[in-house]
Amino acid sequence: MKKHWLCAAGIMFSSHVMADNPVIKEVFTADPAALVHDDTVYLYTGHDEAPNNDVFFEMHDWLAFSSTDMVNWKAHGPIMKATDFKWAIGDAWASHMIEKGGKFYFFTTVRHNEEKPGFAIGVAVSDSPTGPFRDAIGHALVTNDMTTQTPNDWDDIDPAIFTEDNGDTYMFFGNLVPKYVKLTDNLTALDGEIKVIDVPNFTEAAWVHKKGENYYLSYACEFPEKICYAMSKSIHGPWEYKGILNEVAGNTETNHQSIIEYKGNDYFIYHTGALPPKGDQPSGGRFRRSVAIDPLIYNDDGTLKRVVMSTEGITEPAQEK
Ligand code: FUB
């Protein structure tokens, strides 16, 4: 059953894969978003299917993988496709999964139909981290006309969700102009105005996490993209820019990160275009990206060491620290 979706696509794929970077070798994976739930890491990715690296992204659905040691990964297949949102016409771009009250909420970028042309953010829901997912509200949460800071119709992409200890949940998102907005308690509506964030060189791919008393906003910066980061003592900022966290990733201009702590270890999950060709599968590249994982290391003052991208990846199974 687990193999069904990939066999149907003509790809033979064992449901278990072993790490070293890129982590997933049997299919192209991009825009990682990881969730730690019940001692398991769930890794959600976009699915690059471009026939070559010349034109643009071709992305129809999102994939899920899970691991209990960050070395061995189990494939769960696609959890949803862009057009499962009836108002969307495609482009299954970056996403973020969170759990609340035993339900799993999948926030994701798609292209809206002609009623609200341009990119949009939708939210889907499921009782299981591996789906099936259904549109939670029957319409988009954010549409292009709600973000007027740039003339681009993709300035409202890449949702990143953060929940405060008191349960308040915020969505960060945007391209060129970073933005955030509070969500209602049921996560299916905006609860306030969309506010602009002041950080330098922002391109896209916001991700917010907290360690101790420090909040971290990491994001793809410049183009080709590096990952930069800023720190704050509050989810509302001000954000103090701290510099580059990850350099341009090999063989692709985009870079997109997810940061988690699992069993007391810190991980930086990103994508590269580094997957070599194998059999019928062509080489990776700018529109055929692959998820990689390396350690994330904090300095004593809370700042982050620059990530060392490696081909070895995570070699030691995660053990409780
Ligand atoms: O994968 C499509 C887009 O490329 C994502 O939404 C961006 O973050 C960049 O990775």
UniProtKB/TrEMBL annotation:
GO molecular-function terms, A-Z: hydrolase activity, hydrolyzing O-glycosyl compounds
Any Pfam family the entry gives: Glyco_hydro_43
Naturally occurring in which organism (per UniProt): Salinimonas iocasae
SUPFAM superfamilies named among the record's database cross-references: Arabinanase/levansucrase/invertase
Catalytic residues (UniProt): D31, E204
Family membership noted in the UniProt record: Belongs to the glycosyl hydrolase 43 family.
Protein name as annotated: Glycoside hydrolase
Keyword annotations: Carbohydrate metabolism, Glycosidase, Hydrolase, Polysaccharide degradation, Signal, Xylan degradation
Site (Important for catalytic activity, responsible for pKa modulation of the active site Glu and correct orientation of both the proton donor and substrate): D158
BP terms from Gene Ontology: xylan catabolic process
PANTHER family recorded: ENDO-1,4-BETA-XYLANASE, PUTATIVE (AFU_ORTHOLOGUE AFUA_2G04480)-RELATED
Secretion signal, residue range per the UniProt entry: 1-19
UniProt-listed Gene3D superfamilies: Glycosyl hydrolase domain, family 43
